[in-house]
Specification:
It contains 15 helices and 14 strands. It is of the alpha/beta class. The chain folds into two domains: 260 residues, Glutaconate Coenzyme A-transferase, CATH 3.40.1080; 78 residues, no CATH class. Strands 1, 2, 3, 4, 8, 9, 10, 11 and 12 form a nine-stranded mixed β-sheet that branches. It has a three-stranded antiparallel β-sheet with strand order 5-7-6, with helices on one face. The protein has a two-stranded antiparallel sheet with strand order 13-14. Strand 2, helix 6 and strand 3 form a beta-alpha-beta unit.
């Protein structure tokens, strides 16, 4: 007998052999059991990235994006998932470019979708092509706010929340988890959307600093990451630096993820590269332009590009060396501080990547 009463119209559109693949994202009982088993004592959780990914990211897990778009996103951890060849993952992504690399290599097979693009760099044509080729299947469509409310419900320990979000859109028709209901407090017709609590299997959150126990500090907006830390069954923290516990306790004014949510701590300078890490380095606009203007236009180009940058590097330091090494670091530090208003006179101009055509090849 089915355990969950999903949106029947959405389930019919998905054409699934059964709905069990949808269950784990909203399975409170298994999530609660996982949370109760977590270590509450202060324990040194430091380990290399490869060990953390091997131990805590399992085939068929539900993994979710962290940070926002290309800001404080754990890109280098995602690259390690590809190197280890994980399979059958479901991924909650916004934007979906952060999962399209993993789809391309066969790591992610199912998508919970809310946005496809790369900000001002353009549309991710690779994701579109992979979707049409049925190399990934969208299980649910969301607004940004809808996913945020589902994670917040998990953090608060509630079965879900009522909202007006997504009510006037077709999202409610294509999302099996959403239910349009009557506002129980109103006598007149007042529809609301019930958004269930969401429980990803694993989250990887890149932070500015962490101690060895897992207390982690985020400078600037935390976006959904505080709720995500509480919602996920397993949580890996990657951090630009490991600091003493007292530094987190007394010196960090901002968002703190408490240690008892955390399963692994990875010291990972440049862990968000080629994205942006507020206060540390700016995103590599040229890299993203080449990805979308060269790599995304065909599978052949994408393989050439990603093989070079992901499979062709062993860690974030080799990736930074390919970006330009110390010179890139110095420029990226100046740019991110300027973007935050510390130096408005800095020159942000650069030579944009453009395509040249020669005998059918793009380079």
């Amino acid at each position: 007998m089915a355990k969950y009463l999903y949106n029947q119209e959405a389930v019919e559109n998905l054409k699934l052999p059964d709905t069990s693949i949808l269950d784990r994202l909203v399975d409170f009982e298994s999530a609660r059991a996982a949370h109760l088993q977590k270590e509450r004592a202060k324990k040194d959780k430091r380990m290399p990235l490869a060990e953390a990914i091997s131990k805590f990211v399992k085939d068929d897990d539900i993994i979710t994006d962290a940070g926002f778009a290309y800001v404080r996103t754990p890109h280098q951890a995602y690259h390690e998932i590809i190197r280890q060849g994980k399979k059958g993952l479901q991924m909650i992504g916004a934007p979906n470019t952060n999962q399209s690399f993993q789809i391309f290599y066969g790591c992610v097979g199912y998508s919970h979708n809310s946005y496809v693009g790369a900000e001002m760099r353009g549309i991710d044509k690779s994701y579109d092509r992979l979707l049409k080729a049925e190399r990934v299947k969208i299980l649910s469509e969301w607004s940004h706010g809808g996913v945020a409310l589902g994670l917040k419900a998990s953090q608060l320990g509630t079965p879900g929340v009522f909202s007006k979000q997504m009510l006037a859109s077709d999202i409610v028709r294509y999302n099996p988890y959403l239910r349009v209901m009557q506002n129980p407090l109103r006598k007149d017709n007042d529809p609301v959307v019930f958004i269930p609590a969401l429980y990803p299997d694993v989250a990887i959150i890149h932070c500015h600093a962490a101690d060895k126990y897992g207390n982690a500090y985020i400078y600037g907006p935390a976006v959904n990451d505080l709720a995500l830390a509480a919602a996920a069954r397993k949580l890996i923290i990657t951090a630009e630096e490991i600091v003493p516990e007292n530094d987190i306790r007394y010196n960090k004014q901002g968002s703190i993820i408490p240690f008892f949510y955390v399963d692994a701590v990875v010291e990972m300078p440049f862990g968000a590269v080629p994205g942006n890490m507020p206060g540390y380095y700016y995103w590599s606009r040229q890299w993203w332009e080449k990805l979308l203007r060269f790599g995304a236009i065909s599978d052949e180009n994408m393989k050439s590009f990603l093989d070079e940058w992901i499979l062709g590097t062993r860690n974030q330091f080799e990736f930074v060396d390919k970006l330009g090494g110390a010179k890139w670091i110095a420029e990226a530090r100046r740019q991110t501080r300027a973007a935050e208003g510390d130096n408005e006179d800095i020159d942000f101009s650069y030579e944009e990547f453009t395509l040249k055509h020669d005998s059918g090849l793009y380079y």
